[in-house]
Amino acid sequence: MSLVDQMLGEGAVADLCVWKNKVISGITFVIATRIWYQFEILETPLVPFLCSIFLLLMLLLFLWAKFGQLLGTWRPPTPEEIKQEDSLVRALFSKIEGLLLMLYEIAYGKDIKTFICVNLCYH
What we know:
Layout: H1 3-8, H2 12-17, H3 22-41, H4 46-71, H5 79-83, H6 88-107, H7 112-122
């Protein structure tokens, strides 16, 4: 085992760093170079770029909802399906909602012990 392998250990990140899978490592390199080029060379502002990405995602979601049946794919869940109690999407949203509520309680000092622990560990 080489020194690099010993330092990086095992796993997907180590395989990516030592180029064991050349296709995935190459794709990662091209994407990272493209992101660098976009923000450093072209000087694209971050917020408008993210807004453009979100608008594109909303357009794709709209097209998926309207024309998904023609393509033979599942359509995205509707708000009525999300509100159902036995829905998998509802269970996922309720889990996310619980996590956000926990973060809210920590941030606003309702759970003082965790709040102090997080602040001491962060700084």
